[in-house]
Amino acid sequence: MDADAALELVKHGTTLLLLDVPQYTLIGVDTQMFSVGPSFKGIKMIPPGPHFVYYSSSSRDGKEFSPIIGFFVDTCPSEVIVRRWDQQEERLVKVSEEEEERYCQAVKSLEFDRQLGPYNLSQNGDWKQLSNYISKSIIVRFEPIGGEISVACEPGMVNNIPKMVMEKTLDDQLEISKFSTSVNKNVNSRRCYYTSIPRFIKQKGLQGQELTSLNLDKTQLLETLLIKDYGGSEDVLLGELQFAFIAFLMGQSLEAFLQWKSLVSLLFGCTKAPFHTRTRLFTKFIRVIYYQLKYGLQKDSRDTSGAVSGASALLDDSWLSADSFLYRLCKDFFSLMHDASSVDGHLLSWGFSCWNLKLLKTVFLGVSAIFVMLASHSFFVIYSGRILAGWY
Question: Which residue positions does the secretion signal occupy (predicted)?
Answer without folding.
Answer: none
